[in-house]
Design a protein that fits this description.
four-stranded mixed β-sheet, 10 helices, nine-stranded mixed β-sheet, alpha/beta
Length: about 300
């Protein structure tokens, strides 16, 4: 079948309210604190990912549901302005668009999420017909999109039959159980994108390098996101490549990992060598942190070569 898209992803449609400052940690007992600033931006791991992928010239389509509210309008406008195909996004007046409140201190943050439109019924049936038309499917927000979990075996079978490659970024598990069907799908994943906390949680290992080595035996390649320490690529139980971090003055880290994923897949789908894939990924992740929110600092294809030449 003709491949109409480079990437398809199930969209965890969500708005972000980002609260920043030196101390944004609330205290109960009706205590009130002043904070540095706040911002309202599009959120959602796969939404941010899709925007970065589209900005890098990858034909990206998202499948999801938005509420008929101001937050849903914000998300759809941001996706569309970034070049994401939203023709398979439905709006539903009976649902509220999901909202995440980020309490952000530098590179670290705490997140409170109302799941709303992130986890909706029937998303698997809607994404299934598109999988075979795409070169690649990116699975994100695995633990938040619980209603989609039972459909992944069928989706993955369809992808494999159609020659569609698969990437996975689980994100954090709010229940901290770390399985819920994950072991069944990992052997079919071509590129796995955990960060340090996720890789130790999923593996049960306390050491992130041992954890990454162990999990890399179950997937094609594992790309470990280490934040300010850079990134490492593992294959068949061993670290085969390390990428030093790009030193930047971080303003906000929301969405950096999602933009990293898209940068790596830009290289992966364009046949670049692994070093170049990691370089593009690190660049996209680092540049994302220079602006508040998940999309404002994202790299565009027309500036990619210039940034690569002047950064590495």
């Amino acid at each position: 079948m003709e491949k109409l898209y480079d990437i398809v992803t199930a969209l965890d449609i969500c708005a972000d309210i980002i609260v920043t400052g030196r101390d944004v940690r609330p205290e109960f007992g009706q205590k009130e604190k002043n904070v540095g600033d706040y911002f309202l931006e599009m959120g959602g791991s796969t939404c941010i990912f899709a925007c970065q992928a589209a900005k890098l010239g990858l034909k990206t389509i998202g499948v999801g549901t938005a509420g008929k509210d101001v937050f849903g309008e914000l998300v759809l406008k941001t996706l569309t302005d970034s070049g994401v195909d939203t023709s398979c996004v439905e709006t539903d007046s009976s649902k509220k668009t999901a909202v995440s409140i980020h309490l952000s201190e530098g590179e670290d943050r705490a997140i409170l999420t109302y799941p709303g439109t992130i986890d909706v019924e029937g998303l698997g049936k809607r994404i299934l017909p598109i999988v075979e038309k795409a070169r690649h499917i990116h699975i994100g927000s695995y633990y938040l999109m619980e209603k989609l979990m039972p459909d992944y075996p069928k989706i993955i079978q369809c992808a494999k039959r159609a020659g569609t490659t698969i990437s996975l970024d689980t994100n954090w598990d709010p229940q901290e159980k770390w399985d819920r069907g994950l072991e069944e799908i990992l052997p079919y994943v071509d590129v796995f994108f955990p960060n340090i906390n996720e890789v130790t949680g999923i593996s049960g290992e306390s050491d992130c390098d041992k954890a990454a080595g162990r999990l890399s035996r179950d997937v094609g390649i594992l790309v470990l996101k280490k934040g300010s320490e850079g990134a490492a690529l593992y294959e068949k139980g061993k670290a085969v490549m390390v990428q030093s971090p790009i030193k930047v003055d971080v303003i906000d880290a929301v969405g950096a990992g999602d933009s990293f994923d898209a940068g790596f897949l830009y290289g992966y789908l364009n046949g670049l060598d692994r070093h170049k894939c990691l370089a593009v990924a690190n660049l996209c992740g680092a540049w994302n942190t220079l602006r508040v929110g998940g999309t404002a600092g994202q790299v565009r294809i027309d500036e990619l070569d210039h940034l690569l030449k002047n950064t590495f």
